Amino acid sequence: MSAVDNSSHNIYLYGGTGANNQLFDDIYVLSLPSFTWTLVFGPGQSPRWGHTCHTAGRQMLTASGASTAGFAAPPCEWEDKGVGVIDLSTMVWESVYNADTDPYTVPAKVLSTISGYVKPIGLGDTC
Predict the structure, then answer these.
(1) Considering only CA atoms, which of 108, 111, 2 is closest in space to residue 57?
(2) How far is residue 15's CA from residue 108's CA, in Å, rounded to a whole number?
(3) pLDDT tens-place string over residues 63-119
(4) Which string of DSSP letters, residue by residue, matches 13-67?
(5) DSSP-assigned states of every residue in 83-109
(6) What residues are paired with 38 via a beta bridge?
(7) What sign for the dihedral angle of Cα 48, 54, 55, 59?
């Protein structure tokens, strides 16, 4: 995802598994060109691994995967159906995809980490 003014580009990393079957429900953002990692969500309560992530507008959809060391999901988990949706600008998990969102904006935590400023569209534009 890119800032409106293309001053930074952000790569999102969500979930995964580590040593000793440790599971994660964190979201990190790698900002370029500063090459800075920022924790924007987590640790959460619903770890996910073996999944895929897809962006649609400013939302990221997670599909499939598991929330336990095996592929059996515990009862009453909101991701039982295998899909999660998060707004990448606000970093708020949602229960449904919204096709009518505003354009992507860099999350406040990322901006404060990289000391960035995104010029609002229309301010000082001459075209």
Answers:
(1) 2
(2) 21
(3) 887 777 665 554 445 455 578 899 999 999 988 899 999 999 999 999 888 875 544
(4) EEEEE-GGG-EEEEEEEEEETTTEEEEEE-S-S---BS-EEEEETTEEEEES-BS
(5) EEEEETTTTEEESS--TTPPPP---HH
(6) 29
(7) negative
Per DSSP, what are the bridge partners of residue 55?
60
Burial pattern 66-104, b for ≥16 Cβ within 10 A else e, equals: bbeeeeebeeeeebeeeebbbbbbebebeeeeeeebeeb
Rounded to two decimals, the pTM is: 0.78
Q: Are 12 and 88 in contact (CB under 8 A)?
A: yes
